[in-house]
Design brief:
- This protein has 13 helices and 12 strands.
- Strands 2-8-7-6-5-3-4 form a 7-stranded mixed β-sheet, sandwiched between helices.
- Helix 11 packs parallel to helix 13.
- 44% of the residues are buried.
């Protein structure tokens, strides 16, 4: 099974790629879909009016399955920052209220909230992990002044987990909006929006969803689908936009559901077919199965890291598909050079090494990584 999965990716022998949390390798099927789509664009007269909408609807439905949503709840977006901007343009907040963010959060889930706070006279509250877990820290920070909770499902630097269901309950108890950046989980860690009940959830498509760069996903709760405000007004998002002959008959109403939040040019004649191929494979494996298989890999990493005396979030405190390793003395330039020389690719986040394997990761890959780390620790 392991060799079969490795063959689905174009990873040369000798390359140890443990940085899926940054940018996933591309499935051969995704490359083939892109090449086929690129060739189709060579003859644009072969592109039919239905092609502008049929593939995006297929993609929308596939993305919905990944997070237990309905297709009407999904929008196709270019980036997390775009999706967070949509959320910031819609969720209410008044002067003096608070926006909760995680300490050292990824910038795409910070800058929009910082700008919103300036405009509205609100306060950014940065939650630090001083309690036993991120979940406890976030829950303890929520109060009657909290209007928006903008968090990730796990910390992007080391995989430390947030219990989104618990946070969702707490958010609703004080009337706060819950916004989630699921980029470091969607596709690898089970997410159930029916249980979490976020206002908005966004994710890039080029990490754990194995898709192309420049295409991501937004989930909008039912209440935002009927009256939510998009941040751009594309002709494609308007109702009856499939009728090209009637486009000069301008209208105010949108296509149903979260489609009002679709980016302009969402038909993405090249990216969309690639993303369809990627999500088809992810769903074929199953997110639960992917997480289970990656757990067996990160448990091996945890065991070897523990033997070396490295610091890391324990399995009960993190997701099972990525983890940060804290080295004595931090990450030196010499270590970075040694890893590069051995064709070992990991993420460097602050003073930690972020290790994010995938189904193609082999025991030999881990052995090669820890051979380098052992030499570093000995020094």
């Amino acid at each position: 099974m392991e060799n079969e999965i490795v063959e689905l990716f174009d990873i040369p022998e000798g390359v140890v790629y443990l940085n899926c949390a940054s940018l996933s390798p591309q499935l051969r099927s995704v490359t083939e879909a892109g090449a086929k789509a690129l060739q189709k664009k060579v003859h644009p007269w072969e592109i039919q009016s239905s092609d502008w909408f049929d593939d995006p609807e297929t993609l929308r439905a596939l993305a919905a399955q990944v997070i237990n949503a309905d297709a009407d709840g999904m929008a196709i977006i270019p980036s997390v920052s775009y999706g967070i901007s949509i959320a910031a343009a819609n969720v209410p907040i008044a002067k003096g209220q608070q926006i909760l963010v995680m300490d050292k959060e990824y910038p795409s889930n910070y800058y929009s909230w910082n700008e919103l706070a300036k405009v509205k006279g609100a306060e950014i509250v940065t939650v630090k992990k001083e309690e036993a877990s991120w979940t406890a820290a976030i829950l303890n920070a929520v109060n009657e002044k909290t209007a928006i909770i903008a968090i990730s499902n796990c910390h992007w630097t080391n995989g430390a987990l947030v219990d989104l269901v618990q946070v969702g309950v707490k958010a609703r108890s004080v009337g706060a909006a819950l916004i989630i950046d699921a980029s470091q989980a969607m596709g690898a860690y089970p997410i159930d929006v029916a249980a979490i009940q976020p206002d908005f959830l966004v994710s890039v498509g080029y990490k754990w969803l194995l898709g192309p760069y420049g295409l991501g996903y937004l989930y909008a709760a039912p209440k935002w689908r009927a009256a939510g405000k998009p941040i751009e007004y594309s002709w494609l998002t308007k109702n009856n936009s499939e009728n090209f002959a009637g486009l000069v008959n301008y209208r105010d109403d949108f296509r149903p559901g979260a489609r009002r939040f679709d980016m302009g040019e969402f038909p993405g004649f090249i990216n969309v077919p690639m993303a369809i191929a990627a999500l088809t494979q992810v769903l074929k494996w199953g997110v639960g199965s992917i997480q289970s298989q990656l757990k067996s890999i990160t448990q091996q990493i945890e065991q070897q890291a523990d033997e070396l005396g490295l610091g890391f979030p324990k399995s009960a405190e993190r997701v099972d598909h990525m983890m940060g390793l804290d080295l004595p003395g931090g990450v030196s330039d010499a270590l970075k050079a040694n890893l590069k020389n051995e064709n070992i690719f990991v993420g460097f986040r602050g003073e930690s090494i972020r290790v994010s394997p995938y189904l193609y990761t082999t025991p030999q890959d881990l052995e090669k990584l820890f051979n380098v780390l052992k030499e570093h620790v000995k020094r």
